[in-house]
Every structure is written in C-alpha cells, then in structure tokens.
C-alpha cells in the first residue's frame, strides 16, 4: 500500500497502473461504538486472513486522526509500528482475530468525513476514505466484509440508533443508556458503512414487491420536518418499482432507510440500506421547495437507491473505477426521471437539461487543468475526482453503449453484468465487456477496444461535419471528421467511436426518408451513423432537393459538433426539426452566433442591438406556438449562459461577455414585451400545486416572462410590472412562484427587491434551505457598479451565516465566485483576492469544500488581461499557503502547471 505523502510530507500521486490486489482479506467486522460527541470509543474485532494469491506483506491498516489504545492479535497484545498514519503489523499467522480499540472526536470533526456531529446527531460519511477516520482498516473498496454493529449511547439524547442492514437486537443499559445491534446480510466495502444516532422521527411505509417480499421503507428527519418527507418517500417507492420493471432488479433488503442531515459535503450517500442525504435532497413542501428541488429530490433519491445494485451489490475494484458505479448510476437516474415523464416532450426537456449541465460544467472541466479521463490514471486526493467527468460524462459513455446495442440489448447486458459480477469489486472494463458480450452482433462488440477510448482519453472531441449536395444525382454527402484537443498528460488522441444520430429535413420542414448509398430502400427518418475513423463519408441518395441535416439528434455523443449552418438552415431546424433536442440546439446556435459576433467585433458599441429581427421573430414564434410545451419554450427562450459563451472564445473578457449577454437579454425583453405579457398571463395560474413536468414547465415559463417584463420595465421606468411582481411574490401559493417573482425583482435591480427580500427572510427565517436561497439570490445578483462584492462581505457577517455549514457556504461563496461571472471578474481583482481568502479559510475547516471552491478558477488561463495576471496571482497566493490540505493543493497545483 502506498503512503499518500512522501518523506518531505508532500502528497504523492496514486497511479492506476500500480494497483495490486490486497495482501490480506478482512472477512468479518464486529464493531462496538460507545457514542459520545467529545470522545467516541470504537472497538473493532475483525477476522483477517492472508491473500494466498499475492506475495506476503505486512498488514498495513489505514487510519486518520485516531487515538489508538490497544491492538490484540488472537486475544494477545501484539507488537505494531506506525508508518505515517498507517498501523503496520508484522509476523502474523495466515488467519487470525484482530482487535483494535480506538477513540475519536466527532464533535470536532469539521471535515464531515468519518464520524461527525450535526445538530446533536451523529452521522458518518465513509466514501471514499472516511472509514479510516473511524477505525484502522483496509480502507479500500476491494476488501469486502460482513458487518455486525453494536451501538451504545445515552437513550434520552440519542433515542434512534441506526446502522446498515437488519436490526437484530435492542435494549436498555444502566445509567440511562441503550443499545441496538445491526447485522448487514451483504458483504460490503468499508466506504458503504454507516451509522446514525440522534433525536429523529421517521415516515414509514411498508411495500410489497412483485415477488411478494415485504419491505419497510423509512425516511428519518428532525422533528418538525416530517411534513416535508412525502415526496422523498414517493420518489423512493417509484425508484423501487422502476428498477424492478426496467432492469429486473429488486430491493434485496427487509429494511431500507434514508436519513437527512443539514451538514453534508455532497448530495447524498448510498450506504447499504442506510442512505444518508443532504436535507436539500430530501425535504420538500410546496411552501418551501421549488419545482427544481422536487425534481432534484426525485433524481437523487433514485440515484442513491439505484446504487444498491450498481455500486453496492457490484462495487469498484479501486477508486480509478469510480465511474463504473457513478456514470452508470447517473445514467440510470436520468432514465428513471425520463421514464416517469407522461409526455414524450417532457422526456426531451429532461434530456436538454442534462445536456446543459454536461456542456456548462463538464466541457469546461475537460478543457481545463483538471481534465481527466472517465477512468483517471492518477490522483493525489480521490475526493477531487467526484467530478462532472466521472458522473455526467461517464453517464454519456453508458448512454452511447445503449445507443449502440439498443434498449433491449442494454438490459440484456446489465443482466449479464450482474450474473457475472454480483458480490464482486470490478472494473469499467468488466462492465463494457458484459454489455458487448450480451450483444455479440452489435457495433459495440465489433468496436469494443476502440470504444473504450472513451474511458481512457480525456478531452471533448470535435466532430466537424460538412455537407455536399449533388442536385443532379439527388445525393447528399455528409463528411464527418473527428479530432480531440490535447489534455494534461495526453498530447495525441486516437479516434473515438461516435454514434451520430441523424435525420434530414426538407426546406419546407418535412422529415425525409434516409437511404444510404448501396441500400435497396430507405430505412426510416432517423438513424444512427457510427463514426470510428478519423474521417468518414456517408452518402444519402434518392433526394429531390437539398436537405438540412439534423446531426447528433438527442445529443447522441458528448462531442462539440461543428457545422457551418446558414441562418436559414438553423431557422428551418428551429421551426420544424422532429427532434426536439436539435430544435432547441438550433436556437442556441443562433443565439451563440449573435453573441460571439458582437463580442468579437471591436466596433460593437454598448447599446447597439445584438439580435437580428429574424431571430427575434423566430423566438416570438416559439413563445406563441400553439403546440409546443411551456417547459420547452422556456428552454428555447433562455439564451446560452455566460460560461457557455466564454468557452467558445480563445481569450475571454468576462465583462464583455457579460455586457453582451445582458444586452441580448434586454433586447429579447423589450422586443417581445407584448409576447412575454401574453405568455405570463397564459401560464401564471397553474391551479392546485403539483410538481409534475407540465405544471412545472408552465411556472418556469411564467417566471422567465416575469423576469423579462421586469427587465423591460426597468428600461422604460414603467412601475406596473414590478408592482404586479411584488404582488405575485406576496400572494404566491408555492415556493416556485414566490422565488421566481423575488428573483425577477432582484435581477432587474428594482427598488422593490429590498422590501421583498426582507419579507422573504422574515417569512422563512426558520427554514434553513429557504434561507440558503435567500443568500444565493443576493450573492448571485447582477452586478451594478461593483455592488455585489460588498454585499457578499456583509452577508458573511449576517447572523444566519456559518462557513462551517457546506450548504450555507455554497449559498454565499460559491454563488458569487462560481455562478456570478459578471460580479466576480472585477477589473480591480478584488473578487479574486476575496476568493483566495475564502479558499484558505475553508481549507482549515473542510478541505473538500475548499477544493471545490478552488475550482472556480479552473479557466483562468483563458482570461484576457488584466484578469489573467490577477487570477494567477490569487491562485499562487493559495498555493503558497503552508499546510494546505492535499485536496486544495492538488487543485491549485494543477491550475498553475
Ligand atoms: N457516492 C455518492 C457521492 C458521495 C461521494 C463522496 C461523499 O463524501 C463526502 C459523499 C457522497 C453519490 O454518488 O451519491
Ligand atoms: Zn452516485
């Protein structure tokens, strides 16, 4: 086992190629906890045996911030030594009982890894390497053991004591204490261990599965939050039903629990049978949660539940394989949310939303200093690799497999994967092999080694397409050429296997039949071309007029498509494409094109229009369209983000990008004022609240309309819409309408915003998740004369602010540094200086959160002067800080490399 710091105390990179199987197995773990915040005692009794398949080695157990009291081998005091934080035992028999007694201090655990206290309740977080903060162990995912857990604590303060698996015994102890004993029927790696102890209440539901087995489902929260658990429970039931229907995967436990905590570094955690969630992804009521919150809860509850098979039953051999469980499980939760949509158009909306996340977060990651393959080759701190590449790009890789083998073929592949690997710790190769083997005649099977470059090569491929029309022969030749830019450590890339879904649209909007050269007859109006060479030609025949190509339908591969569409072609696709994704994409391209032209034109002056009359007319047509859904309209009418625009530029002047996008937004607001008013009135009353996609879509469009109307009113000085907006804010019957109205006033910078913000705070002062929204709205507000940074400084002094709570820290600090480019990138560099101070401050409290914040500067090298130099200095200031965590050090070191 490698030490993670060298002799000088510098962090050492862990490399995938150095993987070796463990020299020892731990078969059983019997844990006893005496829970006390200041000093928790942990007795860990293990059965250990030598792995006969690898050369003999001492037993090296991981530990972190533990106080070691005793080590017994077969009941006898044993000699051991410490090497750094590792506990090393020599001269051991081939199989033995090992007993280790340690203590730790959960009350002082601000990293929120291992055992910690949140609002007087104990929680654990063990992924990826947190179990070693609870006891000495082989804390690696390929060591799978059977766990039995005894929890003891004061009964009045900690009436609920939970761990993984089944409750087998409980009872009282002297001095007001009590105990529970839990046995997990499945072997698991240490990262899936969990315990919870505190004053909690639960919503319980019993369900009977299709096979007749009964299960107890529970959602545990603090007293007072029980009325916000209905949606999470419904989402859990839906997840269980869906996994059984779609993949034949049943719930394998008698009892499945979800517990919510307000102090959590991430979204949620899939501990076997005892999922621990950030409250943000559990608690919802129409008064306190938005439609987006409801949708996120559904997908995160689904995600964690789906891990029960993809992650828990079959886990990762090592952390380089993280996407084996994460990419696959994101794919599964995306499919789940889509399958729950009643309308096909709602499925398309979900796909567009997912692609927006990929393009706005993963593409920049893949182009920046932290770029890494879906299966990385090395890391310094594994926590830094819970990234959009591992998750979202990993999900796209799985989606491409499904595209190549078909939906039924993919389900067959999943079955084979579980037949082969249930109960094992495996690799991404094992997964891809199972999908291919179950579909031997597929393109995936034919091209498997090449397809797997998606796992090994980083960077976003470019797909350059050109079309050639031969009117005489009625042939349309599409040339597809791929390339991939260099990424850190990978100068040259080999061609990928790229599934390209395609259709051809006539100038009048009709979908054309697709017949490739050599085929006897047309085969449908949409099909998948598979590009595996650097460049290939596809010839469509039997056409009577030049078609408009609709390429990469449904975003069938995570690539950047370059095609020199004319405006007229894009307008045809926007008006007629049968593929909703490409219809939306056409509008994005038109908007992007206008933005880039204005940004690049040195003559372009502030105040001159950016958008053409033609574009505005097309937008009006979509907005007023009698058949299109409100949700889809809202997506089309939302301009590309500043971040997405910036990614298209080699050198970024963030203030110019901001100014141009603001000008576009204002132009859209004023030119379509009457249409926005119409759209608002059409969609403003959604009746009794339900978070379903159709009504959520109408609220989203009404919200966008309100923002546009308030923006236009600011220009004209008209008081009517701001007044109406304040009224809507006050009378709102749900959080979506309320926060949308509030946001419209804040975004427009209207004086009424202050009044509304004060009222919002007073109304929701006891609702932490709503107060997070209150902070985030202000820290994310459009900058007017540099006013956001002073406001953010003030917010940090607000009595409700605490930097120790990750949700609160994110609501202020991340909203400003990562989500408000116009305010953050100040010519005086004050935003960057403030960022560096916050990274350093956070690093001493919670390195994981600090390292995430450090990533706000990932794209610094693209910035124009004076931003670039100032940004570099700020990063260097962080890097120079002594005793930085390896989390933050890895991020800033890569940024400066
Ligand atoms: N496996 C979890 C994500 C997760 C990872 C690390 C954590 O440590 C702080 C917490 C959660 C998931 O994918 O949901
Ligand atoms: Zn996950």
From TrEMBL:
Question: Which GO MF terms are attached to this record?
Answer: alanyl aminopeptidase activity; metallopeptidase activity; zinc ion binding
Cofactor(s), names only, from the UniProt record: Zn(2+)
User: What's an example GO BP annotation here?
Assistant: proteolysis
Keyword set includes Methyltransferase: no
Could you tell me the keywords of this UniProt record? Aminopeptidase, Hydrolase, Metal-binding, Metalloprotease, Protease, Zinc
Q: Which residues form the Peptidase M1 alanyl aminopeptidase C-terminal domain?
A: 567-897
Q: Which EC number(s) are documented for this chain?
A: 3.4.11.2
All residue ranges annotated as the Peptidase M1 alanyl aminopeptidase Ig-like fold domain in the record: 459-563
In terms of InterPro entries, this protein maps to: Aminopeptidase_N-like_N, Aminopeptidase_N-like_N_sf, PepN_Ig-like_sf, Peptidase_M1, Peptidase_M1_dom, Peptidase_M1_pepN, Peptidase_M1_pepN_C, Peptidase_M1_pepN_C_sf
Extent of the signal sequence: none
Matching Gene3D superfamilies = 2.60.40.1840, 3.30.2010.30, Neutral Protease Domain 2, Peptidase M1, alanyl aminopeptidase, C-terminal domain, tricorn interacting facor f3 domain
**Where in this chain does the record put each Aminopeptidase N-like N-terminal domain?**
109-192
Please name the PANTHER family in this protein's record: PUROMYCIN-SENSITIVE AMINOPEPTIDASE
**UniProt-recorded name of the protein:** Aminopeptidase N
């Amino acid at each position: 086992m490698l030490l993670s710091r060298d002799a000088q105390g510098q962090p050492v990179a862990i490399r995938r190629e150095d993987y070796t199987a463990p020299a020892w197995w731990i078969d059983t773990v019997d844990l006893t906890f005496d829970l006390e915040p200041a000093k928790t005692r942990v007795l860990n009794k293990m059965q250990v045996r030598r792995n006969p398949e690898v050369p003999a080695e001492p037993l090296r157990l991981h530990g972190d911030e533990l106080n070691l009291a005793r080590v017994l081998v077969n009941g006898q005091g044993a000699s051991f030594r410490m090497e750094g934080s590792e506990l090393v035992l020599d001269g051991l028999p081939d199989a033995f009982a090992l007993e280790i007694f340690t203590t730790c201090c959960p009350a002082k655990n601000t990293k929120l890894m291992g055992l910690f206290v949140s609002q007087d309740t104990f929680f654990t977080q063990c992924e990826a390497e947190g179990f070693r903060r609870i006891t000495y162990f082989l804390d690696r995912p390929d060591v799978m053991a059977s766990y039995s857990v005894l929890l003891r604590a004061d009964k009045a303060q900690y009436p609920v004591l939970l761990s993984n698996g089944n409750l087998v015994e409980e009872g009282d102890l002297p001095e007001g204490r009590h105990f529970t004993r839990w046995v997990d029927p499945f072997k698991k790696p240490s990262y899936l261990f969990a315990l919870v102890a505190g004053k909690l209440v639960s919503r319980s539901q019993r369900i009977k599965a299709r096979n007749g087995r009964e299960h107890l489902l529970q959602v545990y929260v603090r007293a007072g939050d029980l009325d916000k658990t209905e949606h999470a429970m419904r989402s859990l039931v839906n997840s269980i039903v869906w996994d059984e229907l779609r993949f034949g995967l049943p719930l394998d436990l008698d009892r499945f629990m979800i517990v919510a905590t307000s102090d959590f570094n991430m979204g949620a955690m899939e501990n076997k049978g005892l999922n621990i969630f950030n409250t943000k992804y559990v608690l919802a009521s129409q008064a306190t949660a938005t439609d987006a919150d409801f949708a996120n809860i559904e997908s995160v509850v689904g995600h964690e539940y789906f891990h029960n098979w993809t992650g828990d039953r079959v886990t990762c051999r090592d952390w380089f394989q993280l996407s084996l469980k994460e990419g696959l499980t994101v794919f599964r939760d995306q499919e789940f949310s889509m399958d729950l949509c009643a309308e096909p158009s709602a499925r398309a909306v979900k796909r567009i939303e997912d692609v927006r996340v990929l393009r706005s977060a993963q593409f920049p990651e893949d182009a920046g200093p932290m770029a890494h393959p879906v299966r990385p080759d090395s890391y310094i701190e594994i926590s830094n690799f819970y990234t959009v590449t591992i998750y979202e790009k990993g999900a796209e890789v799985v989606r491409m497999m499904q595209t190549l083998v078909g939906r039924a073929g993919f389900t067959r592949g999943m079955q084979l994967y579980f037949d082969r690997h249930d109960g094992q710790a495996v690799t991404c190769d094992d997964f891809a092999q199972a999908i291919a083997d179950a579909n031997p005649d597929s393109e995936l099977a034919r091209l498997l080694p090449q397809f797997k470059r998606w796992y090994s090569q980083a960077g976003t491929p470019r797909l350059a397409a050109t079309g050639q029309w031969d009117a005489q022969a009625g042939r349309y030749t599409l040339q597809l050429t791929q390339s991939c830019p260099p990424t850190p450590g990978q100068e040259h890339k080999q061609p990928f296997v790229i599934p390209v879904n395609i259709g051809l649209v006539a100038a009048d909007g009709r979908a054309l039949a697709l017949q490739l050269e050599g085929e006897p007859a047309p085969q449908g109006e949409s099909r998948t071309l598979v590009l595996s060479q650097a460049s290939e030609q596809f010839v469509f025949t039997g056409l009577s007029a030049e078609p408009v190509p609709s390429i990469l339908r449904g975003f069938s591969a995570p690539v950047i498509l370059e095609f020199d569409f004319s405006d007229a072609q894009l307008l045809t696709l926007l008006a007629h494409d049968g593929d909703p994704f490409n219809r939306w994409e056409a509008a994005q391209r038109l908007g992007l094109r206008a933005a880039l032209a204005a940004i690049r034109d040195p003559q372009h002056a502030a105040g001159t229009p950016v958008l053409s009359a033609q574009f505005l007319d097309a937008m009006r047509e979509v907005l007023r369209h009698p058949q299109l859904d409100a949700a889809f309209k809202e997506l089309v009418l939302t301009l590309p983000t500043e971040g997405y625009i910036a990614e298209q530029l080699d050198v970024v002047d963030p203030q110019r990008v901001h100014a141009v996008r603001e000008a576009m937004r204002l132009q859209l607001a004023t030119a379509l004022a009457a249409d926005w008013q119409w759209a608002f009135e059409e969609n403003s009353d959604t009746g009794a609240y339900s978070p379903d996609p159709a009504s959520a879509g109408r609220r989203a469009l009404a919200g966008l309309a309100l923002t546009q109307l308030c923006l236009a009113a600011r220009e004209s000085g008209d008081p009517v819409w701001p007044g109406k907006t304040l009224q809507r804010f006050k009378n709102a019957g749900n959080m979506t309408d309320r926060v949308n109205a509030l946001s419209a006033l804040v975004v427009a910078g209207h004086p009424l915003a202050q009044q509304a913000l004060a009222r919002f705070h007073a109304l929701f002062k006891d609702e932490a998740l709503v107060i997070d929204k209150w902070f985030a709205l202000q820290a994310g507000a459009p900058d007017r004369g540099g006013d956001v940074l002073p406001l953010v400084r003030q917010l940090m002094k607000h009595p409700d602010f605490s930097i120790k709570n990750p949700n609160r820290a994110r609501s202020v600090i991340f909203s400003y540094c990562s989500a408000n480019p116009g305010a953050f990138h100040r010519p005086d560099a004050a935003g960057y200086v403030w960022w560096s101070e916050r990274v350093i401050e956070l690093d001493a409290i919670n390195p994981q959160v600090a390292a995430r914040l450090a990533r706000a500067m990932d794209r610094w090298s693209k910035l124009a002067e004076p931003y670039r130099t100032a940004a570099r200095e700020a990063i260097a200031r962080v890097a120079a800080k002594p005793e930085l965590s390896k989390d933050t050090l890895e991020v800033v070191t890569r940024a400066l490399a």
